[in-house]
Amino acid sequence: MEPFESDGLFWLPDEEENKVAGRISFDLSKGVLLSLIGSFSDTKFGEDFHSTKNIGAIHGVAGKRYLTLISCRRVSGRFESPGFQREDYRAESLFAGMGLLDPDDLRFDQVTVEFSNLFDWMSRTAVSREYVFDKASNKLEKATLTLETIPTEEISTDGFKVAITSSWKVLGSTQNPGFEQDFAFRITYENEVEYSAIKQDISSLQDLLTALTESTATPTGIGLWVPEPNEDGLKGKRIKFSAYGQQSSHPMTTSNKPHEALLNFQQAGGLPSLVRWLEFTRDRRIVLALSLSSRYRQMYVENKFFNAVSAAETLHRMEFANGLHPAQEYKNFRKMLVRYVPKKYRGWLSQQLAYSNEPRLRHRLRELAEFSQLSTIIGCEPEAWAGAITNARNRMVHHDKGKGSGASSAELYWLSESLQLLVLTCLTKFCEFKEGHLEEIKKNDSVQFMAVRVQEILAEESSGQKPASAPPA
């Protein structure tokens, strides 16, 4: 998704005869902007021309490509001397290719996507170097730079195929030669699927990279293919479109480079684990959105903590028993209790007991910690860890007087980090990552550092002393 800017002609669907000149531009952080020298509206001079106006789609041609802009809204409109109009539109997405798309039927059967930190996560290289030195003088006699292409890996599952492809190109000049190498995900669907579903799969891959590399992943290139029907109405060759859209995570990407991954591609279990991740997280987007929100946008540590708690609680509700006792047994028990109070209190008591069979937050966190083996990773007892988080949450929500100031910013930060690790390890277990992957996570330097901080918090809480840890830089 390289930034670009180009002049062209633009029109509304079904109104190709009313073309308007303008300039289209794209930036990863700001998204798609269309500036028209003219107008799609019939506003007359002196009328209100400043209100926001939504337009479903805009077609155009610029930079030797056909363009389809979707979910467009007018952000400004004005009259300029000597009396012509200008309009600016923002678009959610832009598709560029050798044809126009029907904005009401955006369906594709293949997508390729590149990410900012995918090469680091793959932990593989196609380039090798060899140096030959003179034995007598120890001077360099020969240097060889070799590139051996990495074969494509692909695996099929129900309804789609996933592949890891590699690419390379020659850089520099004869004076300063070199190679650039990268990887991309490719998903081929059995049938054409809506673009909204494809975006969900892209987001799941983005979240996987962000979680495992502990650095914000941003799509750097998205290619979409749609089959072109032949004369018999059957699928012919595919037509490629490049997709562009604002990436809110881009500012975090530039300031948060990958270091040592929690798990690289092979340690996670390769393509089989990746496919299981895609399938499992499709119906659990809310968990990832809550857990990783602080990786994509800067926020107060209190928000980071609340989101992390919500992610863990939501995951438990989705995957574990949501009742302490059998539903019918508890229903009968509740009715029996209500019968023993005066009639005027029965409605109130029944409402108070409506959700009393659900596990409390401490119970949910403890069960998640036991399932994910969090205690073996960060060296703490599930009950103590769950209690510290529950107490911190309760202090922030209820503001109980006489119970102290609650958790410090440093405490909230490290407890949030442990919650994010909890959610991640639960997901990797549900997705059946490679055996021994939890041991690899435990060895990670950042995990070990976080484990020490959490252990200090638990020790201070059990002794009743105020934490002394300084907030993280």
Summarize this structure as a short list of keywords or feature phrases.
473 residues, alpha+beta, disordered C terminus, 38% helix
Task: Describe the fold and architecture.
It is a single chain. A 6-stranded antiparallel barrel has the order 1-2-3-6-5-4. 38% of the residues lie in helices and 30% in strands. Helix 2 packs across helix 6 and helix 8 packs antiparallel against helix 9. The protein has 473 residues and is α+β, with helices and mostly antiparallel strands.
Derived structural class: alpha+beta
Mean pLDDT: 87
Helix coverage percent of residues?
25-40%
Question: What is the N-to-C succession of helices and strands?
Answer: EEEEEEEHEEEEEHEEHHHHHHHHHHHHH
The whole-angstrom Rg is 28 Å
Morphology: globular
Query: How many runs of DSSP E, i.e. beta strands?
Result: 14
Number of helices: 15
Report the biggest beta sheet as strand number plus sense, adding barrel if it closes: 6 strands, antiparallel, barrel
Proportion of beta-strand residues: 25-35%
Distance between the termini: 32 Å
Specify the oligomeric state: single chain
Catalogue the unreliable spans.
467-473
Strand order across the biggest sheet?
A: 1-2-3-6-5-4
What can be said about this structure in brief?
By secondary structure, the protein is α+β, with helices and mostly antiparallel strands. 38% of the residues lie in helices and 30% in strands. It has helices at 118-122, 195-213, 250-255, 265-268, 270-281, 285-296, 301-319, 327-339, 343-352, 361-372, 374-378, 382-398, 409-430, 437-443, 445-463; strands spanning 4-11, 20-27, 31-36, 53-62, 65-80, 84-97, 107-115, 127-133, 140-147, 153-157, 160-172, 177-194, 219-229, 235-245.
